[in-house]
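Annex B. Sample input.
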Amino acid sequence: MDRKKNKNSNAGMTLIEVIVAVSIFAITAIVLLQSFVTSSRINRKSNTYLEATTVAQNIMEEIKAKKFEEVSLAFNYPLDSSNSVRLTFLDPQKNRINTGKDDELGVREVLAAKDTSNQIIYTPVRKYVDGMDEANVTASVISTDNGKTYKFNPRETGDNASKYYFELTNVTNNHETFDALVTFDGSKDSGYKKKTSTNNEEGKNDYLAPNISNLDTDFNAPFIVEKKKYLEAFSGIDGLIAKQFKFAHDKWESELKAACGTDTETEDYEQKKAAFIAQHKEPLDTDLNAEEVFNSAKKTLLITIDYDKETEKVEVNAKYTIDAHDYVSSVNPEYGRMDLCPCGGDPDQENSDPTQKYFCSIVSNQNIFTSSADKVLKNIYIFYYPNYKSQSSVKPLDKIIVENLNNYPVNLYIAKQQDENNKNSILADENKYRMSLIIKENPETSNWNTSPSLYKSQIKLRTNLDYNISEIYDKLDRPKINQMSLTYQDNSALKRSVSGTAAKKIVDYNGLDDKKLEDRIYTTKVEVYKAGAAEKGFPKEDLVVTLDGTKED
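Annex B, continued. Sample output.
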């Protein structure tokens, strides 16, 4: 009996028990395996999201740190003159850019449009090529030398007005590869509003007023009329007024001797002298007031842009002439006048014959910009004080001439300055003020001859001329007035010129607002997609991460 019990206790598992055990193990294994797969999938998705977020952050940080036009340049011409990438987050991809392979990194600007099925498609912009009419360029920058020099090409009309799209493909971060779409939207739909008197807190300017203290001379050529310096040249001990007085008094004494003789002992000498003085008032050093003469002088500024297309060297030179030759004093009209100067009204005579006693003009020549490997001219700034005695549009006393005969693309800023000693009394002066601005180029496109109003010059004009800048007006309420006689001249064999409204269209004239140094604001969006999304038009199902921001520029 005992042996039987012992024998049963050593018996193995029954078939049913084995089946049950295997089933439990299989179910447990399946659950564990599925959890491992799910966990791996979640980890991979999380890793993809993190890497995509890193890519988006890198792009956003870079584009917010650069000026908008620099971003546009980087996407249209990724490599600079030293063959280095313009976007630092692309440095690891430099070799890929250089290979130019279709399956490697792609960087370009695109336009958005809708196809027949109302789906958004993105197409490459048209960049400038030799011989192309610039009006046909759809890229947001125009460069005739593969990105070495360029100008911003704003998108002002059509469905893409104030909207800019930049595409990246095959961007690798660690082990993941993505496509990306960067969108700048400065249109009214994005919340942009032009600054007005009613929305001055939220509105933004299109063009900011130039600020002398913020000018970077690596890209800007400033010319500043230093009134104090030039005024001292009139009023100093050896100034123009002192020279004029000596010349005038010498002339008076010479004419006195001619009229009265040299023998002062004769009986009628004193009578002759008295008669002469009665008709010819003796010059005094107080007959001329230096500031009055300076303020009444003709002032001509000649800006010359010398551009060598072969060497790509740019020089900007300024010749400033203050010519008081026509000034006549009301105190002593015969001898208190600047046209006694032997230069004959030609200010340049002083340079050719310095031995003569010229005293009616100052001619100043200076170089205000010379390009180099790290200096590229983008803007010319002119700061000057208006001569409010210049009230004739036919013969203005203030004249600015800009010669750009090799058609270098540049922005021209001209800013009238308020005289601190006179700023509260210039209301009427501003309304009466007249000046002349002449811009000279050599238009090379055919539409200059056929339709000047459609032609755009290489110089873009931004100025507060034609606005009353007196303190009585709020910066946003300044009335428009007619101060500037603007002429655009063709310096080629045609010698054609246009003035007024037509000239303003040619030079893309726009005013300045210095209430606050703000520009147009753009909403900025960086979208990172799965690799291959760009080829499919960036479908929503391939979107991994979106990063939003804003950018003032």
